[in-house]
Amino acid sequence: MAAWLILLKNIMTDSPELSLLLDLLGKKEKLAAMLAPSFPIDFPFPDVIGKLKRAGFSYAVEVSRGAVETNKQVVQELKSDPLKRIIASPCPSLVRYIKAQRPELLPFLSQADSPMTASAKLVRQKFPGARPVFIGPCLVKKLEAKDYPDLNILAITFKELFVLFERLKIDGSTEDFVTNFDLLTAHTRLYPISGGLCQSAGIKELLTDEEFRVVSGLDQFEPVLDEFVKNKSIRLVDVLFCPGGCVGGPGIKSTDSLEQRRQRVVKFWVTYQSASKDNHNLQAV
Ligand code: SF4
Asked: Where's the Iron hydrogenase large subunit C-terminal domain (predicted)?
């Protein structure tokens, strides 16, 4: 295909976010890739980090690290008032659903940062001058990024990261096997699986089984939200819009079943848990 035809095809098919990202990489801008914790479904570790660095990213951050901050804030909300009842959702689709369809539930929405925005704040703090680029399974994160213009987040999907690697001709390299995240934690790596927030935030130590609910998928969460309205003993609902959680997100390229995707996330968590050095308590990295 003629070069101009390829260029025209790319212009017509690339999202504005991917086009902008390719432009920023071409200009050698300082960028921090923030990989959502469902990345092992589509990309092997640590190869993906090496590829990101060779594509031109200065830093690679696990969004799981931001989820640690989300958890702290959710727990703080619950502890601040024994009567406090919240719908905790790092999911922008759920937030938009409540705003549009269930505005009576707005006062219950948690005020905690999502893992994406918390990660962007960490990037600003740890890597001054680097623009945060969220890479994940979610299309609606692109809208959430626009809700926080001060954080200057650019959001693309895993599917788009495949296109980016292809476009920049980033293939596998043996040097990719000795890389690691610049900011990481193992603690919240199950976040993309339904219930990941409750599991990693230690909610079972804080609330009884009667006081919280975990749910995902549109047809599943509506009845739970109804129950939350009626049953005042429920203090927390941990809810994600996609079936099974973010492992069911539309920006994932893999055609594996939900169970296979879930197993890949768990396998990464188990395999690298002891080998990876959590640095979420360090003041500087
Ligand atoms: S559950 Fe789906 S819509 Fe919600 S954040 Fe995850 S991928 Fe996005």
From this structure: 31-250
Residue with tokens 């594996």: 256
Find out whether 250 and 142 touch, Cβ atoms under 8 Å. no
- Are residues 246 and 191 in contact, defined by beta-carbon separation less than 8 angstroms? yes
> How far apart are the C-alpha atoms of 117 and 111, rounded to whole Å?
12
Q: Average of pLDDT values for 73-82?
A: 97
3-state secondary structure of 215: strand
Q: Which atom of ligand 1 is nearest to the CA of 249?
A: 7
Cα 249 to ligand 1 centroid, rounded to whole Å: 6
3-state secondary structure 66-122: HHHHHHHHHHHHHHHCCCCCEEECCCHHHHHHHHHHCHHHHHHECCCCCHHHHHHHH
Residues with CB under 6 A from ligand 1: 91-93, 137-138, 140, 240-242, 245-246, 249
Which ligand 1 atom is nearest residue 250's CA? 7
Neighbouring CB atoms inside 10 A of 104's CB total: 10
Nearest CA to ligand 1 atom 8: 138
Ligand 1: atom nearest CA of 90 is 5
Handedness of CA 105, 232, 244, 266 (dihedral sign): positive
Q: How many CB atoms lie within 10 A of CB 183?
A: 23
Sign of CA pseudo-dihedral 9, 11, 14, 18:
positive
Q: What is the CA radius of gyration of the chain?
A: 19
More confident residue, 36 or 11: 36
Q: What is the pLDDT of residues 214-247, one digit of tens each?
A: 999 999 999 999 999 999 999 999 999 999 999 9
